[in-house]
Amino acid sequence: MPLTKGELESKLWQAADILRGQIDAADYKNYIFSILFLKRLSDRFSEEVANAVAAGVPRDVAISDPDEHEFFVPDSARWPAIAGASMNLGEALNVASHAIEDANTPRLDGILTGTNWNDESKLGSPANRERIIRSLLSHFSALDLRDANLRADGDSGAANVLGNAYEYLIYQFADDAGKKGGEFYTPRSVVRLIVELLQPAEGMRICDPTAGSGGMLIYAAQYVQENRGDARNLVLHGQERNLGTLAIGQLNLLLHDLRAARLEAGDVIAEPGLVDPSGRLLAYDRVIANPPFSLKNWGYDFAPNDPHHRFDRFDAIPPRTKGDLAFLLHMLAVTNAHGMVGVVMPHGILFRGGAEGKIRRGIVEADLFEAIIGLTPNLFFGASIPVAICVLNKAKPAPRRGKLLFIDAAQEGYFRPGKAQNFIDQEHIDKIVAAYRAFEDVERLAHVADLAEIEANDFNLNISRYVDTTEPLETLSVEKALAQLKEAERRRAEAVTKMDELLAQLGYAR
């Protein structure tokens, strides 16, 4: 019986229960993701062998010829060899990880070997490691991750079932890891909102310079598919400096069948990895990101000598201890002349002075800001502050030139409140996107400001300066106030009469 998405999610989460309480929640995601991918590769390899044999290929060729497989799995990395090891299980998994990467270089470089199954600081003593790993192997041995077993409930393919289950795990791990979860997970509702604002299309080049777990690139591809485009005709690039998170993102893209996507390792400010053979930054049609909020050590000392001149356009360098605008300036630098940027930013960049004020003024005067959308607080793991989605456009339509749309979506009706976290549902996304596309004033929601109005506000882009969400106080005429007073007196008299009647029935009299 094929696995449904819900059943697979449940089984994967049960695997996490084996590690919960044994090691830190921020660490055990890497072990679950690694063993999941090992099992998936092995099961798919066996399935490809069976399919090739059924098509008439000799079995020894089907097993040994890498051309018969999308990813070749050496004998030492196949599940029977791993699960059948009687001792030194951590070493068996490490050997399997290296063997798979070596057999599929450079496509799988660093995806599995970043997880050390013999790490005493994470998994404890040798005896404890053996017990934990044996439990994981036993649990995953019961999972059939062949394509044929993952096409369920009318789903279009194994990538949907497995990829969506992987996304579920990423969300659950972020929840478990608390504040650290924000390092690799952006709420998918926020991702969807940004992508729908930017409307990527087939043939575009799309980049996420702080890619995390790859969700923005994945949803961009899904959006193109949903709108009858072919995601195979997209260029999907990203960069991520945290190697553990990078591996999560690479696995996420692979499990969503986005084989051609490219993720680079490294610090995008100091070491931008997405460059052409001559070393020049690659350019994109859409650049989307949720950079780390107000990063202190973002590369201030490096910026003045940046060979790509990303930080000198507006005659100011972002402050040493706040890197928000450094990431935005990088995004603008890699956006082509017809491209757009969609980025999550803390509200501080909208009104802080000093170097940030100078940069902000330069971006406004260059007519690059198209929309600023305020969202509710408590949307992100580990960050209770409200955030803003900034949309920038290097090729604004003529009616929008010299104008900037402000939307206050941090109010009732544009999010669903929760106990510890707030949520944006599709109905809220639809309303925000509709307001953006309409690009017009809406009372207590949206305002279109021209550059003269923004200049009059000293280039302060704080949304509350442009959108008044307060309910107007009702003003009463003297006649209406007297009528209301008279009605209140009448009701009081009726209440007194009724009370006297009840007292009389009970034998009391005033």
Helix and strand sequence: HHHHHHHHHEHEHEEHEHEEEHEHH
> What average pLDDT do the residues reach?
89
CATH architecture tag of the largest domain:
3-Layer(aba) Sandwich
Helix percentage range? 40-55%
Give the uncertain stretches in residue-range form.
none
Please count the helical segments. Answer: 16
Distance between the termini: 80 Å
Total beta strands? 9
Strand order of the largest sheet: 3-2-1-4-5-7-6-8-9
Q: CATH top level of the largest domain?
A: Alpha Beta
> What proportion of the residues form beta strands (DSSP E)?
5-15%
Biggest pleated-sheet summary: 9 strands, mixed
Structural class comes to alpha/beta
Radius of gyration computed on alpha carbons: 29 Å
CATH homologous superfamily designation of the largest domain: Vaccinia Virus protein VP39
CATH topology description of the largest domain = Rossmann fold
Kindly give the count of domains.
Answer: 3
**How would you describe the shape?**
globular
Tell me about this structure.
It contains 16 helices and nine strands. The mean pLDDT is 89. It has 510 residues and is of the alpha/beta class. It starts with a helix and ends in a 5-residue tail after the last helix. Helix 1 packs antiparallel against helix 7 (126-141) and helix 2 (25-54) packs antiparallel against helix 8.
